[in-house]
């Protein structure tokens, strides 16, 4: 009986070692526990909005300056230090902010009417480039008073046939003349 005790102890120790190793590898690879629901991937636009909301105006300006200079690691470090999030969460947030630029919005109640936003354009910490082309003609507008939302409204106005309102909105949100805006909008009408 004593001759079997030592091999059984060794076998039990090896089994426990294999069990712990399998558990550690399962956690590292991100396997779910049985019965746990998979977490949906966050929407990058919503992640960008939520991430921008956590920054002060100065941090927001510095973060977009680093992104514009191509200093992604410095931008992640800045976000990490500003929010206290983990490195992976900071990396994901900076990636979302780079892919979907967000204006700085001070914590104030939302305006009820979106038309009010058109009347008083704000300056953003980044330059937005809008490009329109038709055939051999290409026009570009670069402004720090444009973003995806405003440009989307301008394109919708142009495509719905209200080209004058689209040109007026474009001149309010950029440094181009009304004539240049009309030429740009004419390329969007299709």
How much helical structure, as a percent, in the residues?
A: 55-70%
Distance between the termini: 90 Å
What is the radius of gyration?
Answer: 27 Å
Total DSSP E strands? 2
Strand content: 5-15%
Averaging pLDDT over every residue, what do you get? 81
Order of SSEs: HHHHHHEEHHH
The 3D shape can be described as: elongated
Order of the strands making up the biggest sheet: 1-2
Helix vs. strand class: mainly alpha
Continuous helix count: 9
Low-confidence stretches: 109-116
Largest sheet, strands/sense/barrel: 2 strands, antiparallel
Task: Report on the architecture of this protein.
With 190 residues, the chain is mainly alpha-helical. Helix content is 58%, strand content 7%. Strands 1-2 form a two-stranded antiparallel ribbon.
Key features?
single chain, mainly alpha, two-stranded antiparallel sheet, 7% strand
In short:
With 190 residues, this protein is mainly alpha-helical. It is built from nine helices and two strands, in the order H-H-H-H-H-H-E-E-H-H-H.
How are the SSEs ordered, and which strands pair?
Blueprint: H1 2-28, H2 44-53, H3 57-68, H4 72-83, H5 87-99, H6 114-119, E1 128-134, E2 137-143, H7 148-159, H8 163-172, H9 178-186
Antiparallel strand pairs: 1-2
Helix pairs in contact: 2-5, 3-4, 4-5, 7-8, 8-9
């Amino acid at each position: 009986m004593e001759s079997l005790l030592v091999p059984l102890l060794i076998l039990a120790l090896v089994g426990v070692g294999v069990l712990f190793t399998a558990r550690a590898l399962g956690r590292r690879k991100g396997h779910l526990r049985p019965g746990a629901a998979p977490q949906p991937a966050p929407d990058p636009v919503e992640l960008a909005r939520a991430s921008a909301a956590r920054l002060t105006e100065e941090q927001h300006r510095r973060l977009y300056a680093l992104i514009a200079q191509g200093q992604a690691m410095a931008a992640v470090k800045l976000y990490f230090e500003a929010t206290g999030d983990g490195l992976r969460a900071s990396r994901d947030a900076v990636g979302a902010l780079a892919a979907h630029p967000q204006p700085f919005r001070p914590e104030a109640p939302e305006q009820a009417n979106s038309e009010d936003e058109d009347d008083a354009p704000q300056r953003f910490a980044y330059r937005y480039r809008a490009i329109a082309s038709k055939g051999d003609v290409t026009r570009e507008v670069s402004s720090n008073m444009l973003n995806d939302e405003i440009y989307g409204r301008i394109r919708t106005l142009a495509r719905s046939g209200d080209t004058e309102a689209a040109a007026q909105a474009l001149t309010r949100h950029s440094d181009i003349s009304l004539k240049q805006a009309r030429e740009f909008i004419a390329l969007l009408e299709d």
